Amino acid sequence: MTVNIRGMRRPSFVVTAAGLNGTGGVPVGGVLKSDIIENVRNIVTGASASASFETVATVNGEVQQSSASNLSGNEYDFIITPVGVNT
Fold first, then answer.
1. How many structural domains compose the chain?
2. Where are the beta strands (DSSP E) in the chain?
3. Does the residue 33 lie in any domain?
């Protein structure tokens, strides 16, 4: 039996990634354009860092760091809620 998974929603997920030294695209595996970045948390302090990153993914595989600060020494949990579907 063949199952067509086209159109099935992807589950929410968390990816840990390091920040950048300035603005740019942080590689976040599995994120697709239009996915919602629900929250970004510094994994050491637990503090929210959502204000330093976009809230909706604009590039597949990346979350854009909007802060020009040097966040490269920090790791973050990116909590992603997909809105796209598998195609």
1. 1
2. 13-18, 24-27, 36-42, 62-65, 75-81
3. yes
